[in-house]
Amino acid sequence: MEHNDKKKGINYNMNGITHFILLNSYLVFFFAFIIGAFLDPIFKITIFSNHIYKDVGFAMIILATIIIYWSQKSSKDSIKKYNKGLIESFFEFGPYKYLRNPTHLSLFFLTFGFSLVINSFFGVVLNIVAYIITRLFFLKKQERVLSVKHGQVYDEYKKRVKNWL
User: Fold this and answer.
1) Is the pLDDT of residue 29 over 60?
2) Which of 25, 57, 63, 163 would bridge with 138, disulfide CB 3.0–4.6 Å?
3) Are the C-beta atoms of residues 138 and 24 closer than 8 Å to each other?
4) 90 phi/psi in degrees, rounded to 5
5) pLDDT, tens digit, for every residue of 76-107?
6) What CATH number belongs to 2-160?
7) Does residue 128 contact residue 69 with C-beta atoms inside 8 Å?
């Protein structure tokens, strides 16, 4: 299904565009982590000498994994209910009741946790940069697409649910 919005300069193929945008934002995190892992042995900068950071990193990894699973399951279940006509909006289920992008934030915590576990200075720095880039570019674009696709339902959801913690 094509949708044109000449006023905003938007011409989106609505089927799958949000997943494509998210995939690209996730790739930014992946490459930031990989580049950080390669730069650390070259420059040998350690940031933590205390093992508590590894424990914090492991806790972040576990929490992020749980939230990602919860987000994906909630999204899948609510879309099924929406397609059957059982609900009017599939946005406010599971962690989406509290945050518009729980998977994205959890991916940040997941990669940040991994960076803490391996004591990666560049992993931490590039993960923060990746988060800022994806928030400013990819997620803003995703929100425009969802607003065009779902209209007032999504706009009302945006008013009720925060985008940042």
Assistant:
1) yes
2) 25
3) yes
4) -105, 20
5) 888 888 788 777 777 888 899 899 999 999 99
6) 1.20.120.1630
7) no
